[in-house]
Design a protein that fits this description.
Layout lengths: L3 E3 L2 H20 L8 H8 L3 H29 L1 H20 L4 H20 L1 H8 L3 H32 L4 H4 L1 H15 L14 H19 L4 H20 L13 H31 L4 H7 L1 H13 L1 H8 L1 H19 L8 H27 L8 H31 L5 H29 L17 E3 L1
Antiparallel strand pairs: 1-2
Helix pairs in contact: 1-7, 1-9, 3-4, 3-5, 3-10, 3-18, 4-5, 4-9, 6-7, 6-18, 7-13, 7-14, 7-15, 7-17, 10-11, 10-18, 12-17, 12-18, 12-19, 14-17, 15-16, 16-17, 16-19, 18-19
Membrane topology: Multi-pass membrane protein
InterPro entries: MFS (IPR011701), MFS_dom (IPR020846), MFS_trans_sf (IPR036259)
Keywords: Cell membrane, Membrane, Transmembrane, Transmembrane helix, Transport
C-alpha cells in the first residue's frame, strides 16, 4: 500500500468530525469554567483577583499565540501543529483537574492556553484545503462554525452539570479521554503536510514582536489598569508590520491585508463576537444573581441558543451561502443578533425566562448560526494555500480578542451602572445597560459589513484553491 492516496469523500468528512471534536474540547474550555468559578473560589480559597486569573491565564496564552501558531502550521505542517497542540492541551487539562492550589491551577491554565492556540489555530486552514469545492467547503465550514459558536453555550451546560453532580475538577478531567481519543484518531486520518519549511518564513524577530503585542493586548483587555501595556502592545504591533514590510522571509505577507474581505470579515467578527460573548458572560450572572438559578439550571437555560445555532449553521447556512453569497446572508443575520441583544436589555428584576430571556436567546441563536459561517467563509476567501494557516490563526485571534474585549467592556459598564450595589434592581440596571451596548456593537458590525465587504455573485467565496487533502496510510 502506498503512503499516500486520494482521500475519499466519506473519509474527508470523518476527518472533519475528528478535527471538530478536538476543536470542541478547546472551545468548551473557554466557558465551561465560568459556572464553576464559585466552587473553585471556595475550594482553593481564592480572592476575586486571583479567581479572575483562572480565566485570564488561559486567555492571554491562547489569544497571544494564535497568529504565531497558525504561521508555524504553514511552515512545519498543520497536521503536526494540531497534534502537538492537542497533546499539550490534554496534558494540561489533567494538571488542572488534579490541582490542589491556586498557583498550580493558574499555571496549568496558561499551559492549556498554549495547547489550545496550537490546536485550534490551524484547523480552519486544514478544512479549507480538504474541501476546495465551494459547495462542500460551505458545508464543512458550517460544521466547524457550529462547533465554535454553539460550543460556548454547551460549555455552560456541561460546567453546570459536572460541577453540581461531581466537582469542579471534572470540568478539566473530562477532557483527558476525549483528547486521547481525538489524538489517536487524527494521526492516521489527517494528511501528512510537509509545510513550506522554516526557511520559507522563520522570521524570529517578527514572531517575538507579534506574540508580545498580542499577549500584552489581551492582558490589557482583561486588566484595564494596565493601560500602559496597551500602548506598548500598539508599538510592538506597529514594529511587527514594519518588520514584515522589509523582512526577506516575513511571517505575514502584507498582501493578505490588502484583501478587503479578509480584513473586513475579521474586524466585523471581532465586533460581533464582543457583543455575543459579553452577553453570554452577563446573562449567566443575570440568571444566577437576579433570577436565582443554580449552576445546572443556568446551563440548561442556554440549550435553546445552542439548538438554534445548530439548526441554522448545520441545516441552512451552507445552502444559503451557496445560493445568495456570504455577504447577503451575513447582513440580516447581524440584524437578528442585534435585535436579540436589545430584547435582552429589557429584562427586569421580576423577569420570566419564557418571556424575557428565551425569545432573546432564540434571536441571537438564529443570528449566530448564520453570522459565524458567513464570516469564516469571507475571512478565508482568496487566501492562498501557503497562507491558509496564518489566515486561520487570524480568524481565531479576532474571535478571542473580540471576546475578551467584549467581556471586559460590558462587565465594566454593568459595574458602573449598578454603582457597585448588589441588590437585584441595581444589578438589573447594570446588566440592561451592558446588553444595550452589546446590541449597539452588533448594529455597528452590521453597518461595517454593509459598507466594507465586497458585493459578490452567489457562491463565489471559495476560501482556498487547493488540491483535495489525502489520507495517510
Amino acid at each position: 500500500m502506498t503512503d499516500r492516496f486520494a482521500l475519499r469523500p466519506e473519509n474527508r468528512w470523518f476527518a472533519l468530525v475528528v478535527l471538530c471534536v478536538g476543536f470542541l474540547m478547546i472551545v468548551l474550555d473557554s466557558t465551561i469554567v465560568n459556572v464553576a468559578l464559585p466552587a473553585i473560589q471556595t475550594d482553593l480559597d481564592l480572592s476575586s483577583g486571583g479567581l479572575a486569573w483562572v480565566i485570564n491565564a488561559y486567555l492571554i496564552a491562547f489569544g497571544g499565540l494564535l497568529l504565531l501558531a497558525g504561521r508555524v502550521g504553514d511552515l512545519v505542517g498543520r497536521r503536526q501543529v494540531f497534534l502537538a497542540g492537542l497533546a499539550l492541551f490534554t496534558f494540561a487539562s489533567l494538571l488542572c483537574g488534579v490541582a490542589t492550589t491556586s498557583g498550580q491551577l493558574i499555571a496549568a491554565r496558561f499551559v492549556q492556553g498554549v495547547g489550545g492556540a496550537l490546536g485550534s489555530a490551524v484547523i480552519l486552514g486544514m478544512i479549507v484545503t480538504m474541501f476546495p469545492k465551494p459547495a462542500e467547503q460551505a458545508k464543512a465550514i458550517a460544521v466547524f462554525s457550529f462547533v465554535g459558536s454553539a460550543g460556548a453555550s454547551i460549555g455552560l451546560l456541561m460546567g453546570g452539570v459536572l460541577t453540581q453532580l461531581l466537582s469542579w475538577h471534572w470540568i478539566f478531567i473530562v477532557n483527558v479521554p476525549i483528547g486521547i481519543a481525538a489524538f489517536l484518531l487524527a494521526r492516521p486520518l489527517l494528511a501528512r503536510e510537509p509545510g513550506l519549511g522554516l526557511s520559507a518564513g522563520a522570521d524570529v524577530p517578527g514572531a517575538v514582536l507579534v506574540t508580545g503585542a498580542l499577549m500584552l493586548a489581551v492582558y490589557t483587555i482583561v486588566d484595564a489598569e494596565s493601560w500602559l501595556l496597551g500602548g506598548v502592545a500598539v508599538v510592538l504591533l506597529a514594529l511587527f508590520v514594519a518588520r514584515q514590510a522589509t523582512a526577506s522571509k516575513p511571517l505575514l505577507r502584507l498582501g493578505l491585508l490588502r484583501n478587503r474581505d479578509v480584513v473586513g470579515a475579521n474586524v466585523v467578527q471581532m465586533i460581533a463576537v464582543a457583543g455575543m460573548l459579553g452577553m453570554s458572560f452577563l446573562a449567566v450572572l443575570y440568571l444566577q444573581r437576579v433570577l436565582g438559578y443554580d449552576a445546572f439550571t443556568t446551563g440548561v437555560s442556554f440549550l435553546p441558543i445552542s439548538i438554534a445555532i445548530g439548526v441554522l449553521s448545520l441545516g441552512f447556512s451552507a445552502r444559503l451561502i451557496t445560493r445568495f453569497g456570504a455577504r447577503l446572508v451575513l447582513l440580516p443575520a447581524l440584524a437578528f443578533m442585534a435585535a436579540g441583544l436589545a430584547l435582552l436589555g429589557q429584562a427586569g428584576v421580576d423577569g420570566q425566562y419564557w418571556i424575557d430571556v428565551l425569545p432573546a436567546l432564540l434571536l441571537m441563536g438564529i443570528g449566530a448560526g448564520l453570522v459565524i459561517p458567513a464570516l469564516m467563509t469571507l475571512a478565508m476567501s482568496g487566501v492562498t494555500p501557503e497562507d491558509a494557516g496564518f489566515a486561520s490563526g487570524l480568524v481565531n485571534t479576532t474571535q478571542q480578542v473580540g471576546g475578551a474585549f467584549g467581556i471586559a467592556i460590558l462587565a465594566t459598564v454593568a459595574a458602573n451602572e449598578s454603582g457597585g450595589a448588589t441588590d437585584p434592581a441595581s444589578l438589573v440596571a447594570g446588566y440592561n445597560a451592558a446588553f444595550m451596548i452589546a446590541a449597539a456593537l452588533a448594529a455597528a458590525a452590521l453597518v461595517l459589513a454593509a459598507v466594507v465587504l465586497q458585493r459578490r455573485g452567489a457562491g463565489t467565496e471559495t476560501a482556498v484553491e487547493a488540491e483535495p487533502a489525502v489520507l495517510v496510510g
